[in-house]
Amino acid sequence: MTTNALDDAPLSTFHKKLALFSSGGPFLDGYILSIIGVALAQITGQWHLNESEQGLIGASTLIGIFFGAFAGGWLTDKFGRKTLFTLDLIAMIVFSALQFFVGDVFWLIVLRLFIGIAVGADYPIATSLLAEFSPRKYRGPLLGLYVTMWFVGAAVAYVVGELLVGLGDSGWRWALASAAVPALLIALARIGTPESPRWLAGKGRLDEANASLRKVFGPGVTVDDLPQESKENLNVRALLRSGYGGRMAFITIFWTASIVPLFAVYAFAPAILGALHLDGSMGQIGSAVITIMFMVGCIIACVFVNKMGRRPLMIHSFLWSGLALLMLGILPNASSWIIMALFIGYAVLIGGTQIMQWVYPNELFPTEIRGSAVGLASSLSRIGAAVGTYLVPLALSGLGIGTTMIIAGAITLLGALISILWAPETRGLSLTESAALGSKRSTTSTAPAVNLSRP
Fold first, then answer.
1. Mean pLDDT of 47-58
2. How far is CA 59 from the centre of its chain?
3. Domain boundaries along the sequence of the chain
4. Which fold has domain 13-193+229-450?
5. Can you tell me where the transmembrane regions are (predicted)?
6. Dihedral over Cα of 28, 33, 38, 42: its sign
C-alpha cells in the first residue's frame, strides 16, 4: 500500500469543518423533500388538488435533481469545486423564498423544479471536494456521515413544518419558504473553502495546487506529495465505456433500488402511515420517529463501513431492510406497535445502502471525471425516484397499502441481488487505487457480464 500526504494525513479540524459544511447539501435536500409532505396536507385542501397534482408537486424536486446533478458534476469537473460550492446555495435561497408568493400549482411545480436543480448540483460538487481532501482511513465514515445529514434535515422539517402550518392559511407558505434560512447559513459557512489540490494539479495549475496544500496541510506539503493519477485525459464519455461503463451501471442500479422506496416514504409518510392505521398526531409522531431511526441507521453504518467492508455492508443492508418492507405489505392490518417496529427496522437497516450511495461513486472514478460520475449516477437514480414518488398516491388509492409495500420490498431486494453480483470492495484503498480499472480489490469476479475491470 502506497502512502501520500493526503490519503494518510491525520484527521484535522479542517476535515471536520469541511465534512460539516459539505453536509449542508443533503441537510437541505432532506428538509426540502420532507417539508412538502407536511405542507401538502394544507395545500391540497386549499387548492383542491387531485392525486396527479399531488404527485407532480412531490416529484418535481426529484426531476430537478435529475438535471442539476449531472450539470453540477460536469461543471465542477470543468471549472472546479470551490466557486460552485457556494453558488448553488444562492439559487436555493432565492427559489425557496419565492415559494411564499406562489399562486397556483403550475408555479409551485416550476419553483420546486428549480430548487431540485440546485440541490442536485450540490451533490457532486460537495462530495468530490470532501472525498479529495479526506484521508483514506476516514473517507468512508466522512462520506457516510455526509448523507446522515439528509435525515437530520428531514427530522427538522417535520418539526418546523408542523409549527409553521399551524400559523393559519398561509402556514404552508412559511413552511416551504423556510428552507431559505438554513441555505443562507450554510452558504456563509462555506465561504473561504480552498480548491481541491487534486483537481488543480490535474489541470496543470501547480502553483494554486501548492497554495491549497500549504493552507490545509502546512508548508512542507507540495504537489510532489500527491499520488500519480491516470494520464489518459479522461472525459465524460469515459463514463459510458470500458470498465467505467460497468461501474456506472452498477452504481445507478443499486442507487435507484435504494432510494425509490425511501423517497416515496418520505414524500408521503403521513399518508402511508395513515393507510396503516397510524393517522393524526400518531402519524406525525411516527414520521418523526422513523426519520430519527433513518439517521441512526446511517450512523451505525458509518461505524461498520470500515470494519465490515463496503460490499458486505451493502448486501446485508438491502436484504434485511427489503424483508422488513415485505412484512409491512403482508401484515398491513397488524397492531400499531408491529407496524412501527417494522418501519423502524427498515429505517435502521437501510442505512448501509444510503451511505454507500456517496462512498462508491467517489471511490470508483478518477479525479478528472469524479464529479461527472457522481452527478450522472445521482441523475439517473432520480428518474426512478421521481416516478416512484409520483405513483405513490395513485398506488395507495388504486392498489392499496399492502401491495404498495410489497412492491417497495421487491425493489429493495433487487438491490441486494445487484450487490451480490456486482459490488466491489474498496476498503483501505487510496482514491487512486480504488479508481484504477486494473485494481483487483476494486473489482468483482462474480459478474462477467458487467465486469468492473478492464478486459
1. 84
2. 16
3. 13-193+229-450
4. Growth Hormone; Chain: A; (1.20.1250)
5. 18-43, 55-76, 83-102, 108-131, 143-160, 172-191, 249-273, 285-306, 313-331, 337-360, 372-392, 398-423
6. positive
